[in-house]
Amino acid sequence: MRIIKSIRGLHDRVFTGLETVAGSWFMGLAARLVFSSVLLTFFINSAMTKLGMGFPDMLIPAIGAYAQIVPPVAEAAGYDVSAIALFPWKLMVLAGTYAELLLPLMLLVGLFTRFTALSLIGFIVVMSFVDVQFHGLDAKSIGMVFDRVQDAIIADQRLLWIFPLLYLTLKGAGPVSVDGLLAARAR
């Protein structure tokens, strides 16, 4: 019994010390850096495939954006952007393209982090729905939670993508962020 008490005391001292060193700054920064190190380039590259080349076309979603986000709509319009209705399709593609480009950058610097993280969760859910519904993924690619295979691109990977975002939605970016700087300045 005494040895268990000693081990527990050591355990408590070590992890209380780690918690003190990490303070309020570490977890928000770590969650943003982990998400960004894995997915920032993915999202930016994906957004860039949806935009035109050169100015001002680089600000306007090209037909590739419609083909990726709403494939049946693009196909029904004969892949002619001018034949696609503004509401809801063009607005949806515009919002999705800019969200894919801007939200990961906002998350990295910690700007409006809770809103940004929650928006990225919604984006990932919609992206997963589009991938499953319109891009013909097989059951192995879709996967299932609590199955014996850990590498399905939808159920497994996207669940891991969402976890740091969930943390940031609930806890915020912490003091090492634009949000933290704005909060400190407001005080």
Explain the overall architecture.
By secondary structure, the chain is an all-alpha fold. 71% of the residues lie in helices and 0% in strands. The longest helix is centred in the middle third of the chain and has 24 residues, at 86-109. The model has no long low-confidence stretch (mean pLDDT 94).
Separation of the first and last Cα atoms: 50 Å
Our Rg estimate from Cα atoms comes to: 21 Å
Overall mean pLDDT stands at 94
Helix content: over 70%
- Class by alpha and beta content: mainly alpha
Which regions are unreliable across 5 or more consecutive residues at pLDDT < 50?
none
Shape: flat
Beta-strand residue fraction: under 5%
Tally the helices.
9
Largest sheet: none
Beta-strand segment tally = 0
Secondary-structure element sequence?
HHHHHHHHH
How many domain regions?
Answer: 1
Topology:
Elements: H1 2-22, H2 26-48, H3 63-69, H4 71-76, H5 86-109, H6 113-134, H7 139-142, H8 155-171, H9 178-186
Helix pairs in contact: 2-5, 2-8, 5-6, 6-8
